[in-house]
Amino acid sequence: MAHAWKCSGLRWSVEGPELVWDGGRRSALARGRRVAFGVAEGGARTCAGARGHACPAGAVVPARSTGARCEQCARLDRAHSVAADTLADDPRPYHVYLAWFGPGMLKVGITAVERGPARLLEQGAVCFSWLGAGPLMAARRTEELLRAALRVPDRIPYAQKRAVRAALPEAADRAGEVAALHARAVALTGWPESLQRRPLDVVDHVGVFGLAGVPAAVGEVSELVAGGVVGGELVAAAGPDLHLATGDGVVVLDTRLMTGWELVPAPAGGLTVPVREFRAAAGVQDGLF
User: What are the two backbone dihedrals, phi and then psi, of residue 207, each rounded to the nearest 5 degrees?
Assistant: First the structure.
């Protein structure tokens, strides 16, 4: 029987994306590389645990869940989370950012200054600009100010991000939308005094993600199944998504679906897991893995 590995998720660094495996092993993901793996026969997807600890119950979790955690571990994971507003005493400075994912798709968010642009890469932000930096609560208040005054969301569904990646406007148009929102944001009154504003400086990730000229995806993997195989050539990667070129076209794999499964080597080629077809008329794309 082939040795099985468990994936801890996709991580981004200045070198690019890489899959992280339980035990610390990492696999760099270069565009043009052939990626293939199988799901162990007869297995089930188990909870990924929380905060570096294994799930005490070894609970089985749904195949379509992107969180891959049981209710108990999900509560533990969010117990000390900036994103869940349960951590208010973090002494680290935080950035407030504006991120662009497609025409009309802009959001505001915060991330620890020490993380640099990693959070933007993890979300699949096509381009972004910092807006300010300061203590956590000041960053959080600024985020809320923009949400209330400018109706800027703090979350954009991945389905919407994937649908436009193959038909992005030119770089100048992308940057223009970020610049317009940045100007509206800095014109607002009521900013926390402890937040240091940052000038507009749009950073574009199209080249990093490999989205220039990427083919529109025909569908996305909806779930992994025991005994199933995923294989294809990596043509782009954005956020947690891998865009894989297969014999039937480009298919997107959300790598969050991989956690909790025992994965084994598989022959190059083949795609025998459920795929949900995209139904949009045009510009629909996803990450292939």
Answer: -70, -40
- Between CA 162 and CA 178 the distance in angstroms is 19
CB atoms near residue 9 (< 10 Å): 15
CA distance 201 to 179: 9
| pLDDT 10s digits, 202-251 | 999 999 999 999 999 999 999 999 999 999 999 999 999 999 999 889 99
How confident is the model over 168-196, as pLDDT tens digits? 999 999 999 999 999 999 999 999 999 99
Residue 144 has pLDDT above 70, yes or no: yes
User: Which of these, 87, 80, 26, lies nearest to 52 by C-alpha position?
Assistant: 80
In the chain, DSSP finds a helix count (H) and a strand count (E) of 6, 15
CA 210 to mean position of chain CA atoms: 15
Question: 243 near 217, Cβ under 8 Å?
Answer: yes
Q: How far apart are CA 47 and CA 70, in angstroms?
A: 6
Distance CA 118, CA 123 (A): 9
> Could you write out the DSSP letters of every residue in 18-73?
EEEETTS-EEE--TT-EEEEEEPTT---B---BTTB--TT--B--TT-SS---HHH
pLDDT number for residue 103: 95
Q: What would the 3-class secondary structure string for 69-131 be?
A: CCHHHHHHHCCCCCCCCCCCCCCCCEEEEEEEEECCEEEEEEEEHHHCCHHHHHHCCCEEEEE
- Tens of pLDDT, residues 73-113: 999 887 766 554 556 678 899 999 999 999 999 999 999 99
**Count of C-beta atoms within a 10 Å radius of residue 80:** 12
pLDDT digits (tens, 9 = 90+) for 122-131: 999 999 999 9
Tokens 């509560």 label which residue? 75
